[in-house]
């Protein structure tokens, strides 16, 4: 399906107000319809030290704030992530802790607080099976936590290697390989060869492998997990690829290589990039705009290339800190979070 | 803070004459008057130096009117400041104070960039990188010492 042929628009579905400071991150609950009949959920977290859970009504389809998780974190909540089962929410804060909340249907309860980082925690990510969590911090380290029974979380590994503040961690969608990106301009890949939980830095993507020349803010994988997009303060998006089929069949570590760089589209820092299940890359930047990119499907001698599908200027009134596609089938919803204190839900639709 | 000041003998510059503005402050959200260099400078000229609370950034020549670049149409402001000494360890704090004051004073449509003047500091690139990292700046502003300093 050639998206470039269609007349597509990003339509604002709803603006979610409530946070009293900038919103840093949004996270869609991966389970769009719950077995117990509960409704689709979206989490957002903010400089106001709270996390808001938004719920969609099955009748009106509009979103309202179901609950506010407050009086736990004492500083900015920078990032939030639902576990793969959709039952738990992890929240990473500048107060140095990571909260784990359990969704009890009508309420959320703080069931655990992970401590250990020396200063601000910037990001949290669950692996595909929900058996591990990763966090990262301005203290330059990446921590891996094992999820045990009885709401116990054990620090399994402290990974040192980055020379500066680590901005984001992201587990690979199908393998227990961990990725981190940093103020040191690099992306690191952490892997445990023997599956014994002894993670090492298997690769560092820096300027010598066509990497970024300034702080890397975020990492996102395509559904297959054989490509990833990274975005940076250097005003570019970079696409990377790896032969993961080999890794799945136990042939050892498959290195990531640079595929292409999308430059000239952004003139302010790109804070977030997210790859949808149907292969559309969304970016959110400091120029208040959301941009969508697709594979041009016209490979040249230089390799694959990507086209700008559309630019939504002034999507927000201030910097966009996070964009995330919903993983629900067929509806192409995108959530965005901004310094203006708003969360917005968008739909990618054909212009009638 | 150390009891020994980094710069024991700062040069104090005479304050420039202030232009008398006959119109009211035009930096509220709904103002139609474009914001100019002097408007922005007026917001930051009296910020007290962290090491010398009796002296302002203007008196220490850390900033001058020429430090300010404004493009109202593009909603863009850039401040280029000169720390009092090239080895001065407080440029981050100075930059943070300037950034914080402008965040409070300018309409929210403005993009604010703060940096040290080229050649004015030995760790220029490292300092400028920190000053251009919004997340670091915001985290810095949550620091209770800085909150006290700014108020």
Automatic annotation (TrEMBL), chain A:
Gene Ontology biological-process entries: iron-sulfur cluster assembly
WD repeat start and end residues: 16-55, 70-102, 114-147, 159-190, 209-240, 313-352
Cross-referenced PROSITE patterns: WD_REPEATS_1, WD_REPEATS_2, WD_REPEATS_REGION
Keyword NAD among record annotations: no
Alphabetical list of SUPFAM superfamilies matching this protein: WD40 repeat-like
InterPro entries linked to this entry: CIAO1/Cia1 (IPR028608), WD40/YVTN_repeat-like_dom_sf (IPR015943), WD40_PAC1 (IPR020472), WD40_repeat_CS (IPR019775), WD40_repeat_dom_sf (IPR036322), WD40_rpt (IPR001680)
Family: Belongs to the WD repeat CIA1 family.
PANTHER family: CYTOSOLIC IRON-SULFUR PROTEIN ASSEMBLY PROTEIN CIAO1-RELATED, WD40 PROTEIN CIAO1
Primary role: Essential component of the cytosolic iron-sulfur (Fe/S) protein assembly machinery. Required for the maturation of extramitochondrial Fe/S proteins.
Name of the protein: Probable cytosolic iron-sulfur protein assembly protein CIAO1 homolog
Organism: Cardamine amara subsp. amara
TrEMBL record, chain B:
Signal peptide segment: none
Assigned keywords, A-Z: Chromosome partition
Gene Ontology cellular-component annotations: intracellular protein-containing complex; iron-sulfur cluster assembly complex
InterPro entries hit by this protein: FSCA_dom_sf, MIP18, MIP18-like
GO BP terms, alphabetized: chromosome segregation
Domain MIP18 family-like: 39-112
UniProt family annotation: Belongs to the MIP18 family.
Name of this chain's protein: Protein AE7-like 2
Originating organism: Cardamine amara subsp. amara
């Amino acid at each position: 399906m050639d998206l470039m042929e269609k007349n597509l628009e990003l339509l604002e579905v709803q603006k979610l107000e409530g946070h009293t400071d900038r919103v840093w991150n949004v996270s869609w609950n991966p389970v769009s319809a719950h077995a117990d009949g509960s409704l689709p959920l979206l989490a957002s977290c903010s400089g106001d030290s709270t996390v808001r859970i938004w719920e969609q009504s099955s009748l009106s389809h509009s979103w309202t704030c179901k609950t506010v998780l407050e009086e736990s974190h004492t500083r900015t909540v920078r990032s939030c992530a639902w576990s793969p089962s959709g039952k738990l929410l992890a929240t990473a804060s500048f107060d140095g802790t990571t909260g784990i909340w359990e969704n009890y249907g009508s309420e959320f309860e703080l069931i655990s607080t992970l401590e250990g980082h020396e200063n601000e925690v910037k990001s949290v990510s669950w692996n595909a099976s929900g058996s591990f969590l990763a966090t990262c911090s301005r203290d330059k380290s990446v921590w891996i936590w094992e999820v045990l029974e009885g709401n116990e979380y054990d620090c399994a590994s402290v990974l040192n290697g980055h020379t500066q503040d680590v901005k984001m961690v992201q587990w690979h969608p199908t393998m227990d390989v961990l990725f981190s990106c940093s103020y040191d301009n690099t992306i690191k890949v952490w892997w445990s060869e023997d599956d014994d939980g002894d993670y090492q830095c298997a690769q560092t993507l820096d300027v010598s492998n066509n990497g970024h020349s300034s702080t890397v803010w975020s990492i996102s994988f395509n559904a297959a997990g054989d490509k990833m997009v990274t975005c940076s303060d250097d005003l570019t998006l970079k696409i990377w690829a790896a032969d993961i089929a080999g890794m799945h069949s136990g042939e050892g570590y498959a290195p990531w290589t640079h595929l292409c760089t999308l430059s000239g589209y952004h003139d302010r820092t790109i804070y977030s990039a997210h790859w949808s299940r149907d292969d559309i890359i969304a970016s959110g930047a400091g120029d208040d705009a959301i941009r969508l990119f697709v594979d041009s499907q016209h490979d040249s001698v230089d390799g694959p290339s990507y086209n700008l599908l559309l630019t939504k200027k002034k999507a927000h009134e201030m910097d966009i800190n996070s964009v995330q596609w919903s993983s629900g089938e067929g509806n192409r919803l995108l959530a965005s979070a901004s310094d203006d204190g708003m969360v917005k839900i968008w739909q990618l639709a054909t212009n009638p | 803070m150390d009891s020994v000041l980094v710069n024991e003998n700062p040069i104090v510059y005479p304050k420039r004459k202030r232009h008398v503005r006959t119109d009211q402050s035009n930096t509220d959200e709904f103002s139609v008057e474009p914001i100019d260099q002097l408007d922005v400078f007026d917001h930051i000229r009296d910020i007290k130096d962290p090491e010398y609370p009796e002296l302002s950034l203007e008196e220490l020549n850390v900033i001058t009117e020429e430090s300010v670049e404004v493009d109202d149409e593009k909603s863009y402001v850039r401040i280029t400041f000169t720390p009092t000494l090239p080895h001065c360890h407080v440029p981050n704090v100075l930059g943070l104070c300037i950034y914080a004051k402008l965040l409070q004073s300018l309409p929210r449509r403005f993009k604010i960039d703060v940096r040290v003047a080229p050649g004015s500091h030995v760790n220029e690139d490292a300092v400028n990188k920190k000053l251009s990292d919004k997340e670091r700046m915001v985290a810095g502003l949550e620091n209770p010492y800085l909150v006290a300093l700014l108020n």
